[in-house]
Amino acid sequence: MDEVEQQLSKQQIEEFREAFSLFDKDGDGTITSKELGTVMRSLGQSPTEEELQEMVKEVDADGSGAIDFQEFLTLLARQMREASGADEEELREAFRVFDQDQNGFISRDELRHVLQNLGERLSDEELAEMLREADVDGDGQINYTEFAKVMLAKCLLN
């Protein structure tokens, strides 16, 4: 697994693979800048043609003028970092709000408490699903790295 894939959850990679496949019209494993625009718009972005060409150029490691899936992941990871607008300190502060006992993890109860304070009323099933999606290592709680991935992904998709 390369560095980019380590920044993304398995679910994110699968969602990105599905989006990539949808727009790889000829099935050759690459997408052009035009196809990339369709993908980016489907993920809630609105790049100009110039921005699309620049994006392809930035990650097109083999100089083919199109991007393969690995280059696509690199592009999306970069977009997530840039789109987040949240610097490390803002993310850490948000994590501290959720991590009420300051033990370095967000428990199910802490997640429920903060979401209720924000006016979110979730069923036990919805809360369990939210925890499952974020809890990459499966230990039943969310550490900072897992929290940061979820927050960055939300920034990309919003």
TrEMBL record:
Protein keywords: Calcium, Metal-binding, Repeat
Annotated InterPro entries: CALM/Myosin/TropC-like, EF-hand-dom_pair, EF_Hand_1_Ca_BS, EF_hand_dom
Top-rank taxon: Eukaryota
UniProt GO cellular component terms: cytoplasm; myosin II complex
Record keyword Metal-binding present: yes
Domain EF-hand residues, every copy: 11-46, 47-82, 86-121, 122-157
GO terms assigned for molecular function: calcium ion binding
Membership in a protein family: Belongs to the calmodulin family.
PANTHER family the UniProt entry points to: EF-HAND DOMAIN-CONTAINING PROTEIN, MYOSIN LIGHT CHAIN 1, 3
Name of this protein: Calmodulin
Protein source organism: Panicum virgatum
